[in-house]
């Protein structure tokens, strides 16, 4: 139907053009002084008129021919106007499509955040500081403008979509994402979205924050990897500031990305073949990292029967194996040094 609506005006315009060309030849060919004496001459004249070039080598001399020429001239202005409008419209559509994220992204191993608010904004900034790319899915067009103004397109991809439309998440690169943060309005909406996504992407890992801490087991049963309660986190931090303010301040510092040498962060690095501590003992790695790089190794995460087992300050004879994660406190100056030495950047994916 759409093709028919576009085809009819084009066919009609071509028919009218053919009739005008024919009439122009009839009027002009009767006079030997007329430069327009054949269909070729008439077509050349119409094309020069249409493109507004106006060489002046072809022109009608009869009254009827001049009337036809005037019609072609006015018609050419209309055609050019329509062409310019259509081209501009198409360019704007392509820009809008790209702006809305409908062209998709080529991000890999990134974080997909479903739902945008102040919390998502803070998390996005932390992820960017840690050199991770983020794909944001929002159902509010106003958010698109803000996100594009605040973040570079090299770091953040934004998709405008119905948050319930799971099929559109493919454009956010969810298949190649390392983690998904379900940040919808209510716990119920989060659970429904996670179940729908899990149905399509079974191995995808999720992080979710809950308003109701009693739902933790429900979300874990649904396959959510990490379930956090906003109230629990806030209450622990507030209580810490009440009776151990310096500890709480240090904890807050460790929870954010380290950029400067006086800023610290707890980071984890996966053990790959290039890691110099592969198959060495925890005690050796602890001493070497502290002496050479002022890095404090505080634990190891090991995979055990599909589950992660976190060993906090394990015995010195604990062997560091391929696929383990070393948990350490680093400052902004040593973070890149450690990443280069380990052959992998921080993070669990």
Summed up:
The protein is of the alpha/beta class and 349 residues long.
Characterise this structure.
The protein is of the alpha/beta class and 349 residues long. The chain folds into three domains: 2-99, Helix Hairpins (Orthogonal Bundle), CATH 1.10.287; 111-234, Rossmann fold, CATH 3.40.50; 259-342, Regulator of K+ conductance, C-terminal domain (Alpha-Beta Plaits, 2-Layer Sandwich). Helix content is 48%, strand content 16%. The protein contains eleven helices and ten strands. It has helices spanning 2-29, 39-50, 63-99, 118-129, 141-150, 187-200, 216-221, 230-243, 245-254, 282-293, 332-342; strands at residues 111-114, 134-138, 156-160, 179-182, 206-210, 226-229, 264-270, 296-304, 307-312, 325-331. The strands form two sheets. A six-stranded parallel beta sheet has the order 3-2-1-4-5-6. The model has no long low-confidence stretch (mean pLDDT 85).
Write out the strand line-up for the largest beta sheet, numbering strands in chain order. Answer: 3-2-1-4-5-6
Number of helices: 11
Order of helices and strands: HHHEHEHEEHEHEHHEHEEEH
CATH superfamily of the largest domain: NAD(P)-binding Rossmann-like Domain
Write down the Rg.
33 Å
Low-confidence stretches: none
CATH class of the largest domain: Alpha Beta
Q: Tell me which CATH architecture of the largest domain applies here.
A: 3-Layer(aba) Sandwich
CATH topology of the largest domain: the name is Rossmann fold
């Amino acid at each position: 139907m759409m093709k028919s609506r576009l085809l009819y005006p084009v066919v009609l315009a071509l028919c009218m053009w053919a009739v005008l060309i024919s009439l122009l030849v009839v009027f002009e060919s009767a006079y030997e002084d007329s430069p327009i004496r054949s269909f070729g001459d008439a077509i050349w004249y119409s094309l020069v008129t249409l493109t507004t070039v106006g060489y002046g080598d072809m022109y009608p001399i009869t009254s009827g021919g001049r009337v036809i020429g005037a019609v072609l001239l006015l018609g050419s202005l209309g055609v050019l106007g329509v062409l310019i409008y259509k081209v501009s419209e198409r360019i704007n559509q392509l820009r809008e499509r790209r702006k809305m994220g409908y062209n998709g992204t080529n991000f890999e191993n990134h974080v997909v955040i479903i739902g945008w608010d102040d919390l998502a904004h803070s998390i996005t900034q932390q992820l960017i500081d840690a050199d991770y790319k983020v794909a944001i899915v929002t159902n509010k067009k106003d958010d698109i403008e803000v996100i594009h103004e605040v973040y570079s397109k090299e770091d953040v991809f934004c998709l405008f979509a119905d948050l319930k439309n799971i099929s559109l998440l493919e454009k956010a690169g969810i298949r190649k994402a390392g983690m998904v943060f379900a940040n919808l309005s209510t716990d119920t909406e989060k659970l429904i979205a996670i179940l729908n996504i899990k149905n399509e992407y079974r191995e995808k890992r999720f992080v979710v924050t809950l308003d109701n801490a009693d739902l933790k087991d429900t979300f874990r049963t649904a396959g959510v990897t990490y379930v956090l309660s906003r109230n629990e986190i806030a209450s622990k931090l507030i209580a810490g500031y009440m009776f151990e303010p310096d500890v709480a301040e240090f904890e807050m510092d460790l929870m954010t990305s380290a950029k400067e040498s006086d800023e610290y962060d707890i980071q984890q690095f996966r053990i790959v073949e290039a890691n110099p501590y592969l198959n060495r003992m925890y005690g050796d790695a602890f001493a070497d990292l502290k002496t050479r790089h002022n890095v404090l190794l505080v634990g190891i995460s090991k995979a055990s029967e599909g589950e992660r087992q976190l060993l906090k300050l394990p015995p010195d004879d604990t062997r560091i194996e391929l696929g383990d994660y070393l948990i350490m406190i680093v400052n902004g100056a040593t973070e890149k040094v450690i990443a280069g030495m380990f052959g992998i950047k921080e993070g669990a994916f």
